[in-house]
Design a protein that fits this description.
Order of helices and strands: HHHHHHHH
Shape: elongated
Largest sheet: none
Number of strands: 0
Strand content: under 5%
Structural class: mainly alpha
Oligomer: single chain
Length: about 180
């Protein structure tokens, strides 16, 4: 019963929870001596850090659309709000990371700093190579310790990206997002 209550409290900010999971897997990966175990944890860290960034983008877009619901004129924005409220499927124009970033910049009428955007896109490219199988990806992911290197820079990349995202939205509060570099469980 206690663990259910703690899970309910911890799950209040999906973006913060996924970031925390990324920290957990990064820590485990950096402690592991076996290369296969290291890779397993580093892959999981990257996936969770990227999920944190995606959750943040969806959160901000949802807040923006809800705040401006009465003045929405574009069908694409109305459909996106329906999807984020869970009453329809996510529109094609909000599925990929570039599409989500474009939507945010369009809605906020502001741009991400190019370097911030590019670093986050590069991280999500590695994430996509981890998740979407192709025999050619194995050498790309594991050569030159790419997974380990990207997992170790992922907290900073995602922290900067989410911080800038909230600033684009005009908020300094980050909905429970924590940027300390050790997992809290």
């Amino acid at each position: 019963m206690l663990s259910e209550k703690l899970a309910t409290v911890a799950g209040q900010s999906y973006m913060a929870e996924m970031f925390n999971d990324g920290l957990f897997y990064l820590h485990k990966g950096n402690e592991a001596e076996d290369i296969f175990v290291r890779n397993r944890f580093h892959r999981s860290a990257i996936v969770n850090f990227c999920t944190s960034g995606e959750a943040a983008m969806s959160t901000i877009v949802h807040k923006f659309l809800m705040k401006n619901e009465s003045s929405l004129e574009e069908d694409v924005d109305i459909e996106l709000l329906k999807a984020l409220n869970g009453s329809s499927n996510t529109p094609e124009n909000f599925v990929t990371i570039p599409a989500k970033i474009y939507t945010i910049e369009r809605l906020m009428d502001k741009k991400f700093e190019r370097n911030t955007k590019n670093k986050y896109r590069d991280l999500t490219k590695i994430r996509n190579k981890i998740i979407h199988f192709s025999s050619s990806y194995k050498s790309e992911i594991y050569s030159n310790k790419t997974v380990e290197r990207m997992a170790n820079v992922a907290p900073e990349i995602v922290d900067v990206f989410i911080t800038e995202l909230f600033k684009l939205y005009g908020h300094n509060s980050m909905d429970g997002f924590q940027s300390k570099r050790t997992p809290s469980y």
